[in-house]
Amino acid sequence: MLLTMAAFTSLFAFAPSGRSASAVKDRGRELVQDVCTYCHNLDRLNGQELTRQEWRGLIKGMISEGAPVTDQEFSMILDYLVKHHGRKH
Ligand code: HEC
Fold first, then answer.
1. What's the gap in Å between 31 CA and the centre of ligand 1?
2. In a structure prediction context, what are the per-residue pLDDT tens digits for the chain, which is 89 residues long?
3. What's the CA-to-centroid distance between 36 and ligand 1, angstroms?
């Protein structure tokens, strides 16, 4: 019985820990999905293709609107947006 419980628990523990490995990689995406949806949905990002410099300015603008973004989060959000909504020259 105890063994069954342990197996059950470890099975449960496995799924979230497997997820957290990719969650670290997708932290930028998570931040965008969390922080950038406080005031509007992510439809705002559709069709946006900005350079790194432009995204930097836009995020700063969002922060002045009240977006709660730390310096560390700023660069993760920036990297994510440049990667997925960047304009390539
Ligand atoms: C505190 C509220 C708030 C948060 C949080 C916020 N925004 Fe915004 N965002 C706004 C407002 C208000 C506008 C409309 C401003 C305007 O149209 O001038 C806007 C507009 C935008 C636009 C459209 C700009 C354009 O020129 O059409 C984009 C893109 C955008 N936000 C991205 C983001 C991203 C990325 C984040 C996360 C880093 C974010 N927003 C977080 C308030 C917020």
1. 14
2. 555 555 555 445 444 444 555 555 689 999 999 999 999 999 999 999 999 999 999 999 999 999 999 999 999 999 999 999 999 76
3. 7
pTM: 0.80
- CATH code, 36: 1.10.760.10
CA 52/CA 44 separation, integer angstroms = 17
Tell me the sheet residues that pair with 3. none
Query: Crossing angle for the helix pair 71-85 and 27-35, nearest 10 degrees?
Result: 100
Number of domains in the chain: 1
Pocket of ligand 1 (CB under 6 A): 35-36, 38-40, 44-45, 48, 58-59, 62, 65-67, 69, 77
